[in-house]
Structure formats: C-alpha cells, structure tokens
Amino acid sequence: xxxxxxxxLTTLFxxxxxxxxxxxxxLEIIGTxxxxxxxxxxxxxxxxxxxxxxxxxxxxxxxADDFVIAQNDATNTYNPGKWxxxxxxxxxxDLYFCQIAYDKNSATxxxxxxxxxxxxxxxxxxxxxxxxxTPTTFAGAAGTTGSPAVAKxxxxxxxxxxxxxxxxxxxxxxxxxxxxxxxxxxxxxxxxAVVSLGDGGSITLTFDEPITDGDGPDxxxxxxxxxxxxxxxxxxxxxSDGVTFVRFDSTYLGTGPVSEYGxxxxxxxxxxxxxxxxxxxxxxxxxxxxxxxxxxxxxAITHIRIxxxxxxxxxxxxxxxPIYDPYPTHESAGFDLxxxxxxx
Length: 344
Known about the structure:
Layout: H1 2-23, E1 31-35, E2 40-43, E3 47-49, E4 55-62, E5 67-72, E6 83-91, E7 94-104, H2 107-111, E8 131-135, E9 150-151, E10 157-160, E11 163-168, E12 195-196, E13 202-211, E14 219-222, E15 234-239, E16 246-247, E17 251-252, E18 269-270, E19 280-284, E20 301-308, E21 312-316, E22 322-324, E23 336-337, E24 339-343
Antiparallel strand pairs: 1-2, 1-8, 2-3, 3-4, 4-5, 5-6, 6-7, 7-8, 9-19, 10-24, 11-13, 12-23, 13-20, 14-19, 14-24, 15-16, 15-20, 17-18, 21-22
C-alpha cells in the first residue's frame, strides 16, 4: 500500500510539474516588429505596444491557439480601458496578426470574439487581410555586412579626448577601475586599459579643440567588450558649454532582463555606446541632434558625457522602452570606457 501510495504521489507531482512548466512557457511572439503601414510593435511578456495605436496590457495568451487577450491602456486614443484580442498566424516563415477585438467590455468578452481564418491571409481577418509583422533589426556586430563600427586605428580619427571635466561614480565599483587617465588618448582595445563608470555612473571629457559637425559621423566611442554579444551600454551626450547637454537618440529592442554573464543581440541596439567588441567604436553623427536643443552649438562641441546604462531596466531608450544589459556586475561594473575619438 505504501509503495502504491508513493507511486501515485510521484505521478501527481510529475503531472503538476508538467502543468506548471507548460504554464510558464513564454509568449512565443515576443520581439519588435514593423508592419506594412509603417507602424511598430514591441511585444513583451506583459505588453503589446503599437506606438501610435496605443499600448495593451496582456492578461492572457495561448501559444497553442495563437491569441493574446489584453486591456487597452487608459491613455490610448481609441477605446481606452476596453479589451482587445490579437490573433497571430505563421505563414511559412512570416508572422501575421489580426486585432479581431478592440472595444470589448471584459477579457471574457474579448476572448469569445471570433472571425479569423488562419488559412486565409488575404481575407481571413474578419474579411480583411492579416497584417504582416517583420522583425526590426539594426546593423550587427563589427565586421558584419553593413556594420558602421569604426576600427581603433581608422585614419579618419584625427583627435582624442585630452581632459576629464567631471566624473560621477556609479555603484559596484572598486578603486582599481577608477583611473580616469585611461579614458584619454587613443583607443587601445585592451580589456584592462579602461576606466569603469559603475552602475549608472558617468564621465565628462574635454578636447583640445571644439568638435564640429562634418559630413557623416563626428564622434566614436570605444568600450572593452571581449566578445560581440557580452555588451555593456551607455548613453552619449554632448555640450558646447559644459552645462547644457543633449543626448543622442537610442533604441533598445531587447525584451527582458540580462543576467550578470548574459548576452545581448547587437542587431537590437542602436544609438548606444558599447555595441561593439574591444577595438571597435560606435560612431555618432552630430547632425542627428539638430533641433533637439537650440542652446547647444553643434558647430562647437566642447564636452562629451558618457552615461552608463544601469542594466536592470530602470533606464529607458528614446522611445521609453527599458534597456537591459548584464546586471548586476561587480568590481568593474558598468560601462568600461576605452576612449572617445573625433572624426574629421
């Protein structure tokens, strides 16, 4: 009897574990996409952000029947606070979706909505075409096709930072990594010849001559990553007086936390320093800042500030999306600055 009871309990335990594992499977369409109408879709485990069309908080999803139930955000222009149902379908390698419900009074009512035919991409969305979602990506790692990464010995780099105007140390940083002189002069591409900023820290650098806005990139920032995907990120800001700074726009399309030794996909990152491995820098074009702040003279930049992105998601990109990179890290935590060069 005891043996039989033990077998029954073990069976129930395994079944329960299997159910729990099934329940914990992630939403299979998490990612960032563009549609054929110029819209963007950022889908996480809890949100579906359709940019101008609004944000939807996911309350339920089903990877077997391919649907999401979500509540329209209270700030949405259309049907705020109502409930939506989004169905998806794969046609070959292509992903399509249909927002079959958008104005229901409850999650139950939204889930009960029908009208999609996954076999008919042309008219199977309640008589309309399904909307194609194409993954959004940027240029990849240094050396890959289309990558704008700049080599440390690129002859177009004509000057390097020569002074440190200010530094604010972040968390989880030891004294051994606080030598600010290591941020001056040419990039070395050496893992230890850097100054680490700590989580959320920053450093402001100066130059012998003001930086002007020329053709193409004007600034290039080097980090010390030992690989193409173990990346620590930072914002880049410029100033013409050392007081008022303007930040380059950034986009981060990752969708979840990254562990201390976790990795990032560089094709989901744009406008952030640290995207490339040691010896390769991220270029920035002053022209992209035109009109952001009239008090900053883009023809006479005197200061550049590098601000570590604290990797826990508490900092956001220009679109308000949380940014994640390896976190928490220790001793040499945060962005590891090798050098900042000037391209003329």
